[in-house]
Amino acid sequence: MEKWENNRAWFLILPVFVIVAFSAIIPLMTVVNYSVQDIFGPGQRFFVGMEWFREVIHDERLHSALLRQLAFSCMVLLIEIPLGVLIALAMPKKGWGVSACLVLLALPLLIPWNVIGTIWIIFTRPDIGLLGKTVNDLGIAFDHTARPLDAWITVMAMEVWHWTPLVALLAYAGLRAIPEAYYQAAKIDGASSWAVFRHIQLPKMRGVLTIAVLLRFMDSFLIYAEPFVLTGGGPGDTTTFLSIYLVKIAVGQFDLGPAAAFSLIYFLIVLLFCFVFYQALQNVGTGESR
Amino acid sequence: MARITLQQVAHSYQRHPKDPSDYALKNIDTVWEDGGAYALLGPSGCGKTTMLNIISGLLTPTRGRVLYDDRDVTELPPEQRNIAQVFQFPVLYDTMSVFDNLAFPLRNRGLDPQTIHRRVQEVAEVLDLTADLKKKAAGLSADAKQKISLGRGLVREDVAAILFDEPLTVIDPHLKWHLRRKLKEIHEKLQLTLIYVTHDQVEALTFADKVLVMYEGEMVQMGTPAELFEEPRHKFVGYFIGSPGMNFIPCRLEGNRAVCDGASVVLDEETVRRAQGKEGPFELGIRPMYLEVHDEPGDDRIPVQVRKVEDQGIFRILTVQMASSTLKVRISEERPLPGQEAWIRFPRRWIKLYANGRLVA
Questions:
Q1: pLDDT one-digit tens code per residue, B67-89
Q2: Which residue, of B237, B263, B280, is where some domain finishes?
Q3: What are the C-alpha distances in Å from A52 to residues A36, A257, B124, B220?
């Protein structure tokens, strides 16, 4: 067959190419460019090779931020996924209650992220906050600006309040998609409600739960606005998550080189974890007895 | 195993039904004998599945009673009725192996592992699933999955009946036949009561000893396939069973004759006597295969115009015009085709008279 001489096809994919270039490739390559140079000012830059990567990898503060971040994301998954599934199971299946629940659940998702931080600052203030004042009046000392544990509890509570509805909505969608015949068959087979959950509902929700786990992991691993507004990373460094630390280096200290190297490592970590989660969830419950 | 009786059962999906049209099932009275193979036949939306779910206990009827032998089970949930039901789409527990799927109903009832193992092996044997026992149920073909659904019913000893809700809908045609034969085989071997819901008359007539035809929430006839074919008790049965369905011609009674547009036909005395005092409108009914076609005029022969000929392999279907009525006639393919003009005869023994949609008998 003769080769097609007309190269118009290239022209047709140009729009996509341009969009992807500006939205992903060029910014990413800029970061790669920064990560191998030492920049003093406009026009004053030196190639430093892998120097920044070496420095970042040996940064103690980054290590502790990474551990903190992992602990945070794990707790988020451990709390939000089961809680979201429980909420979905408890939701009504028909009638006006469905719409009411869906609207109530969706509310936290509609609020801008920095506003959420602000809401929780006020909510938990020991002097005037509804929650903070109540807890302190009950005789429990609580102040997220001074005590690391309280700061953590507050950030976790905020995160759970903000994002569990997403998991619940996904799980609810998964549950509603199960045909009625499965429940009828289970009744006839004499299955307990635990068996129905274990053998019908949970396996049928695998797809949506995979999405929920991936989304919640990625988002919580990249979390910035809410804790930044709420605690600013403090007290001390105790709620300084990776992105907050990264912004401190890049914007606070204007160390663009190390910050770029850090960003790339950060990106690879997220990618790696998501890949592992995805693979694990794809295979769960399918490979047991082959 | 048990004899299943429905006494004046009616069901409505509305909470406060007022009108008879609010009922999906209207006053059903029927007995399913122990060990029978029954088919429940009717168009979509006629109440077949509702009836099945009432028998299995997935639905509690609005009115009436359900008896297993002499035990009233109307209020009992399905797991206490010891009944099996196979659904339109195969229902499987995807994460389990075939063995675990079959063992599931027994484990839920707390049986000991040896009994479970023995029962599962026996059932797998009957269904040709022994080789698949260790496999994941999710990866099997649709017919194997449907066999597993059936197996979960068979595995319990002494189930009252097995109910099938259009179980072959998602099965490939060539496997349908195989699976249907398997069902028959199981029925003969285990002598279980089977109730089989379908809207496919071939499936119903080949599977069942007795067929119950339903129409708009009512039971219009229960009988053997031959009875349904030869003595349809309701116009709907005549239409629905047979291909093409029965011919119906509006008529009026004059003495011992039924007079319709363009023809008059002599009825037998018995029918004439029974028709006395019946409210019309009257209709003549006759199966296409019982109409005789002639090329010459003669006694009792009625002239018709041949409008269309359809060749269906071993027979032909003629569409003929008799005055204002259009009739279908089935003739064997060996008979030479009549011309444009033909004469048909109504053999007296195959003429049925219907008053207001119901057989005069």
A1: 888 888 888 888 888 888 888 88
A2: B237
A3: 7, 6, 66, 86
